[in-house]
Amino acid sequence: MREGKGSPRLLVVSRQRAVAYDHALLEVLLQAALPLCRRVADELGGPLAGLPMVECSVLGRREMSRIHREFLGLRGPTDVITFPYGEIAICAAVAAGRAPEFQHTITEEMALYGIHGLLHLAGHDDHEPSAAKRMHIEQTRILQRVMKTELRVEGLKRIGSSAE
Questions:
Q1: How many other C-beta atoms can be found within 10 angstroms of the C-beta atom of residue 57?
Q2: What angle, 0 to 180 degrees and rounded to 10, lies between the N-to-C axes of helices 129-162 and 23-44?
Q3: What is the rounded distance in angstroms from the CA atom of residue 49 to the CA atom of residue 35?
Q4: Where do the domains of the chain lie, and which CATH numbers do they carry?
Q5: How far apart are CA 151 and CA 85, in angstroms?
């Protein structure tokens, strides 16, 4: 187990305009997920433990398709691609298409993709079915935890503002 410093800095940028989502909420959810994923990195020894920064780029269908083809040799867009140097590419169009299937908002689905990317950086792998299942359980647990935290914070803000 590696002795870690703090979590890396997280930057979330939108490089697409076609899909509307709550960028501020996505940032909050991924910021809340980062230390949880960092703990996983300490256990698994993934590169997240040593990165100074992680950049999550929200991309459109065309740009994600280009990256998917260029780096993985596959045609068409995919949900998320993670690079070991700390870049996570999230496809907003794929999230918009898949969110209703899982009863998520587009932003929640994108947060799930970001958490998936962070878990890859933490040392998780999803190429074998058993490893994919473990990773799916972990990313779902983290998303649920950060969503509960965000709901509590928002509720407290509303209570505080109505008391004024």
A1: 19
A2: 130
A3: 10
A4: 9-157 (3.40.390.30)
A5: 32
Three-state DSSP at 23 gives helix
Percentages helix, strand, coil for the chain (3-state, rounded to 5) are: 60, 15, 25
pTM above 0.70, yes or no: yes
Give me 64's structure tokens.
């994600």
10-27 pLDDT tens trace: 999 999 999 999 999 999
Backbone dihedral region of 73: left (phi > 0), alpha (psi from -120 to 50 degrees) or beta? Answer: left
30 burial class (0-12, 13-18, 19+ CB within 10 angstroms)? buried
Helix (H) or strand (E) segment spanning residue 12:
strand 9-14
